[in-house]
Specification:
By secondary structure, the protein is mainly alpha-helical. It has helices at 2-7, 64-76, 86-98, and strands spanning 13-14, 17-18.
Length: 100
């Protein structure tokens, strides 16, 4: 979720209307577009959850997009908003090179 939000998922609005409102135009990453994810399980009993369980499903998506856009900033010294699509990254890279 976080990788897609950072690099490809962009809601395009023109004149108050959503232009890419369906999955044909809204670019979601496919399984070949993301790196291998190696989970690290840390088991710790929680008194709050049922049978000691805790929810961890979407919590990892929170820092992913900022980490990616910060890496782009560190490389090109260019601010990005999510989504930093490949075209936007290329444009910022070319701008940064021309300013050297």
């Amino acid at each position: 979720m976080g990788i897609g939000y950072a690099l490809s998922e962009e809601l395009v609005i023109e004149q108050g209307h959503v232009v890419n409102g369906d999955l044909r135009k809204y670019k979601l990453p496919r399984s070949l577009d993301i790196p291998e994810v190696v989970p690290i399980l840390v088991e710790a009993h929680s008194a709050d959850g049922p049978f000691g369980a805790k929810g961890v499903g979407e919590i990892t998506s929170i820092p992913t997009a900022p980490a990616i856009t910060n890496a782009i900033y560190a490389r090109w010294s260019a601010n990005h908003r999510a989504a930093a699509t490949p075209g936007q990254v290329l444009e910022k890279g070319q701008e940064a090179r021309s300013n050297l």
